[in-house]
Amino acid sequence: MKILLLDSNSLLNRAFYAMPDLTDRNGRHTGAVFGYMNMLINIIDKYQPTHAVAVFDREAPVFRKSIYEGYKAQRKPMPPELAEQLEPLKGILRAMGIPVAEMDGFEADDIIGSISRQWEYPAFIVTGDRDSLQLLSERVSVLLTKKGVSEVEDYTPARLAEDGLTPSQVIDLKSLMGDSSDNIPGVPGVGEKTAKDLLSKYSTLDGVYEHIDEIKGKLKEKLEAGKESAYMSYELATIKCDLTLPVRLEEAGLTIPFPAAAREKLLELGLVKIADRLPVGAKAERAESEIVTLENEDALQEFIARIRAAGEMSIALDGGITLALSGGEGAVIGEGRTLFDEGLEYTRVLEALRGVLEDEGVKKTVYDKKALMRALSGHGICLKGADDDAMLLAWLDDANRTYKSLSEACLAFGIDDSCPACAIFRLKEIAQEGVRAKGMYDIYRNMEMPLIPVLYAMEEAGFCVDKRGLEELNAEFERILSDLTARIHELCGVTFNVNSPRQLAEVLFVKLGLKSGKKNKTGLSTNVEVLGELEDKHPVIPLILRYREIAKLRSTYVYGMLPLVDETGRLHTLFKQNATSTGRLSSSEPNLQNIPVRKAEGALIRKLFTASPGNVLVTADYSQIELRLMAHFSEDPAMCAAFNNGEDIHTATAAKVFHVPEEMVTPEMRRHAKAVNFGIIYGISAFGLAKDLGIPRRRAEEFMSGYFATYPRVKEYMNEAIAAAKERGYVQTLFGRRREVPELTSSNPAQRGFGERVALNMPLQGTASDMIKLAMIKVFERLTKGGFKSKLIMQVHDELIVDALPEEAEKVAALLKECMEGVIKLKVELKVSVGKGENWLEAK
């Protein structure tokens, strides 16, 4: 028999601060429960206990308070994000059959001490509190957590002896040196080293005072003055071992595998990885008999007939091919390229499925429709009737989470994915319920789903690139980097790898003696923020910043793009619908969303993106869309008037803030006004604005005060938006797209600040994203149905790009402007700027 005793408050608290701030799909915090349960399963696996008790503290005052009012007085209240995880954890433990023990007036330590003493069997205590080391004996050991809850150190009396102590001396030590974590005073002025020296010589607290005359000088004075405090501290530090126990030994027996209810409790919190690790008797999942293996072509044709009869299906190509009907019936065809014993090939299976896959009347639920369209098109199959995409539903249900694959989504939603096609149907059912409950089904059905064929066509069309120009620019960037490297080495007086943060830190902070207080896991940081602060401290810093800028551009957009240009001279970037919480599209391979706009090198890169031979690029860009949306949301009269009167908003803002006529506004005034205008959208602080503009903080505060005096409704709107988000727990766009903001209730000021910025920015950025998506759908439809040969090929934030025939260019420009400006009616005028040119730079 072996008893596991869990000091649960201590462990949960450590897990809370060690783990990331995880939340479930309903916004409940789960990180501490995740860390606690992960540790518990590890402990059970390694130490194989037969019995277990989870012991908790209660909120009621403990008896030690009556001895010393200051006991634990400095402790802050439990953060609400942690407090809300107590009851869910207790529910999981009870479902596992592990009793929860707690008593008014006493601490978990006292219950643990009493159990370990009164149940005369081997026991091990898991805790983060060294107080429990006093309980060590020949049959009681302590697993002391370190590094959060990921590692433990096994303490026995022999291990404690290596620290020069016996178990009983743990109490004596605290009575002398005190304990700041529990606010136990000890003897003022006596530290750990002195206390250990005294115990080494006199063994106990009583022994110290029995030999007080042997102690000389200041130490004797401290001990005499602190005698009463020492004995009070002894009483405070002593763990009670004689309580009437709140749990019986027979109630603590572990039954492994655990009841299935424990797994269900974990799944309710979205802790699927932990649920999968927990050994349980039976999973509440689909019966195996509902999933069949198709072993020959006759069986395949029979299942296809059932698909036609049902009029709906799901298909997944993960590993092998799996099919499913909505009732849960699934078919696994096989893995690899040869799927049947007689050698029926993958392509022959897909050919057999062509009829139902191309049948608009057979409705399909899929995961990542765009990727499936591409995979099937490689076999000459045009997917039709795919009306539902479980990937998009899962993302809309919680846009704060990104799933890289179907298996990741299934883990998060607690779905068995042994038959991927069956899992797709189940994922759709669960996620769709959440999307409907959040009022976003219209976003899904009328925005995200119609966007898929638009993005697919854009990816297929690609963007022409001047490959020779790209190679020449790569050579030029290499030359610049080589020159910068030589100059950096010369200024530093040493040759080193400029790309190595470790070597760079050694040169800057050791050899050159520059000061930096920022550290990372590998040593002193050399990130851009640190280097920016040092820019005027040494002439090499601007060169290093320049080196990094060119190196990043070259690796990502020049050298990194060369292998991605196909034999037709086109780049086919991949658009991602489910990668951001605001609804913005992102792209990869390569990411064309982040090519610098204002830098000279960024202009050189954009110049290499060209129209198809003989064509022109037509671009259309929303003008200051997020500022216009701020005017709409805030209804500020002055801001609305500026936009509706066609004024330059930055010049108008500068004129009002600096109290000068618009014709007297200088470029620097306009630059400052522009920084404030856009900074406000992202919740910038006076500190951040001062840093961006390189001005004193007081001056930045004056700018912001002047801004809010000019546009008072903006400030009111910002306060109202944050307050509403706190009350509702979410923010949303004009079209109803929602983002949960659990950070607003965090006890961490940095997290709360982030939540406030999200509350301000997401409605603006998200609405702008919704607008461009609806515009894309309209543009694509008009180009397709209108018989245009021009193609929509690119979207970058608020900009659309069409590869147009010269004779269609004017019509395309007008069509873009009409579709983009007509997507919504705001309280201010929407303005779209259009341009034409042979390359992206010229068209912009």
TrEMBL record:
Pfam families: 5_3_exonuc, 5_3_exonuc_N, DNA_pol_A, DNA_polI_exo1. The gene is polA. Its EC number is 2.7.7.7. Keywords: DNA damage, DNA repair, DNA replication, DNA-binding, DNA-directed DNA polymerase, Exonuclease, Hydrolase, Nuclease, Nucleotidyltransferase, Transferase. This is DNA polymerase I. The keyword Transferase applies. The lineage of its organism: Bacteria, Bacillati, Bacillota, Clostridia, Christensenellales. Belongs to the DNA polymerase type-A family. SMART domains: 53EXOc, HhH2, POLAc. Single-chain monomer with multiple functions. Residues 1-255 form the 5'-3' exonuclease domain.
